[in-house]
Amino acid sequence: MSDLDFSKLETLSVSIDQHIAHIQLSRPEALNSMIPIFWHELPATVRKIDEQSAARVIVISSQGKHFSAGMDLSVFTQMGQDFVGEPGRRAERMRRMVLELQDSFNALESVRMPVLVAMQGGVIGGAVDMVCAADSRYCTQDTFFTIKETEIGMTADVGTLQRLPHLIPQGLVRELAYTGRNMGAQEAKESGLVNQVFADQESMLAEVMKIAAQIAGHSPLAVAGCKEMINYTRDHTVADALNYMATWQTGMFQMPDIQEAMGAAKERRKPVYQELHKNISGMQRK
Ligand SMILES: CC(C)(COP(=O)([O-])OP(=O)(O)OC[C@H]1O[C@@H](n2cnc3c(N)ncnc32)[C@H](O)[C@@H]1OP(=O)(O)O)[C@@H](O)C(=O)NCCC(=O)NCCSC(=O)C[C@@H](O)C[N+](C)(C)C
C-alpha cells in the first residue's frame, strides 16, 4: 500500500505538519459510519504515515456531530446476503473476515508512534473498538460511548472486549457490554477511559495538538520504545516485560539522541532528532 494517495481517500482526510499527522474521519453526512473501504483505508494510512512520513505522533478526530456511528448499517444487510453456502466454509470465511477487521485497528497499536483520539458526539459500536486501540483518548462534554453490538444481537468482535478491560474497571466493562447503555463523557473521565473532557471540539483539538507537539518534540526512538514497552507489559508478566526491556535497551540505548537532548537543554534550543528508519530498500510492503 506504499502507493496510497492521501488525496484520494474516500473516508479519511490526512494532513501532516510539524511531525504531527492528523487523520480525520471525513464522512460527516453519514455520521462517519464505517463502510467496507474504511477498514482498508485506516490501516493503510497509518502504515504509510509510519513508513514514509516524518510524523512522530498521530491525532485522529472526526468531522460533524458524531465521532462515528460504528459499522454502516448497510454492511449488515450485505453480510446477510453474502453468508451463504456450506456451513464449514462459510464459518471459515467469517473467521477470516473478523481477523481482517481486527487487523485494521491493530494497526493503531502496532504503529511505532503514539495515537491520540479526539472525540465528539456518539462513539458507537465499531468506533469503541477503534478508540480502545489508541494510546490516549480525549472527548467533548457531549460525547457518549455505546457498546451497541449486544443490542443489535451480536458480540462486539474487533477489540472492545479485549482492550477495554485494560482501560476501565472490569465490572463497568461488563455492565456496558451486557446492557449496551450509553456512557457519557464525565463517566468516561471518572473511569479513566478518557484523559480530559472539553467544552467543545475547538478547545479539545487545540489542547490535543499541544500534547501531540510535546510528543513530537522528543526523540522518536525514545517514544517508540515507551509505546513498545507499555504495549508489551500489558500482555505479559512484569518479569517478562523487564527481561524484554533489558534486551531492548541493549540495542536501542545509543548516545546520539541523549547527547542531542542534553546539548539542546544546555543551549536552550529545541533538540533536532533523526527520523526513525523508513522502509528498508527492496523490502517495501506492496
Ligand atoms: C448514531 C446515532 C447515535 C445518531 O443519532 P442522531 O439522533 O444524531 O441521528 P439519527 O436521526 O438517529 O440518525 C441520522 C441518520 O443516520 C442514520 N444512521 C445512524 N447510524 C447509522 C449507521 N451506523 N449506518 C448507517 N446509517 C446510520 C440513521 O438511520 C438516520 O438516517 P435517516 O436520516 O435516513 O433516517 C444513532 O443514529 C444510532 O445509535 N445509530 C445506530 C448505530 C448502530 O447501530 N451502529 C452499528 C453499531 S454495531 C457495530 O459497529 C458492529 C461492528 O463493530 C462489528 N463488526 C466489525 C463485525 C461489523
From TrEMBL:
Task: Tell me which domain of life the UniProt entry assigns to the organism this sequence originates from.
Answer: Bacteria
Q: Name the predominant localization.
A: other
Q: Where in the cell is it found?
A: Peroxisome
Record-linked SUPFAM superfamilies: ClpP/crotonase
Cite the entry's keywords alphabetically.
Answer: Acetylation, Fatty acid metabolism, Isomerase, Lipid metabolism, Lyase, Peroxisome
Q: How would you classify this enzyme at the top EC level?
A: lyase
**Cellular component per GO, a single term:** cytoplasm
Q: What is its EC number?
A: 4.2.1.149
Which pathway is recorded for this entry? Lipid metabolism; fatty acid beta-oxidation
What GO biological process terms does the UniProt entry carry, in alphabetical order? fatty acid beta-oxidation
Gene3D superfamilies in the cross-refs: 2-enoyl-CoA Hydratase, Chain A, domain 1 (3.90.226.10), Lyase 2-enoyl-coa Hydratase, Chain A, domain 2 (1.10.12.10)
Which InterPro entries does this entry report, sorted A to Z? ClpP/crotonase-like_dom_sf, Ech1-like, Enoyl-CoA_hydra/iso, Enoyl-CoA_hydra_C
Which Pfam families does its entry note?
ECH_1
Q: Which GO terms describe its molecular function?
A: isomerase activity; lyase activity
Q: What family classification does the UniProt entry report for this protein? A: Belongs to the enoyl-CoA hydratase/isomerase family.
Q: What is the official name of this protein in its record?
A: Carnitinyl-CoA dehydratase
Query: From which source organism is this entry?
Result: Paraglaciecola mesophila
